[in-house]
Amino acid sequence: MSNVETSGIPGAANASPPVKSFDHTGFTVASLDRSLAFWVGALEFKHLHTLTFDPSPFVDEVVGVPGAALRVAMLQGPGHMIELLEFAAPANRETYKPRLCDVGSAHVALYVADIDALLSKVARLGWHPLGKPQTVAYGESKGLRLVHVQGPDGVTVEFLQRAADAQA
User: Fold this and answer.
1) What is d(CA 69, CA 63) in angstroms, rounded to the nearest whole number?
2) Which of 81, 135, 151, 152 has its CA 20 to 30 A from that of 17?
3) pTM, entire model
């Protein structure tokens, strides 16, 4: 990998960066219940709460979609939260299932104890690997196993298994 030159980027050398910390990663899903089965049932994240938002000027401004209505579930995972959004309106919503190479595609990566066991578990919920699990053969990540899985809504999650966990 090459180093990226940042000296010409405005703000690149700020003593106090504008971002203080991460809060959560959000995914828009077709079914909150189906998604909770994956995140809570299979990955064992803690379901903190679900909120319902009817159409209002507040919601319009927050999501940038006039007439939006949605339910939002907040989940706590190890060291990070996941927000699931299920929109009931507007009626002209679209579904995108981008490939990992498509611009705008995003994913979250999770360290897991056993990739093979987890792949079996999530397959029953409609989540499937995009390829076969691979093992890094060299460098600082040598022995790391990884695979990307994609769910029925097109949401992509990367599973990472440390070499030490494979030997445990």
Assistant:
1) 10
2) 81
3) 0.87
Q: Outline where 40-137 has alpha helix (H).
A: 57-63, 115-123
Among residues 117, 118, 144, 149, the alpha carbon closest in space to that of 132 is found at 149
Beta carbons of 27 and 83 less than 8 angstroms apart: yes
DSSP 40: I
Q: Distance between CA atoms of 116 and 149, rounded to whole angstroms?
A: 12
Query: How is the beta sheet containing 46-53 ordered, strand by strand?
Result: 24-28, 80-89, 69-77, 46-53
Q: How far apart are CA 129 and CA 11, in angstroms?
A: 39
Q: Are 39 and 45 in contact (CB under 8 A)?
A: yes
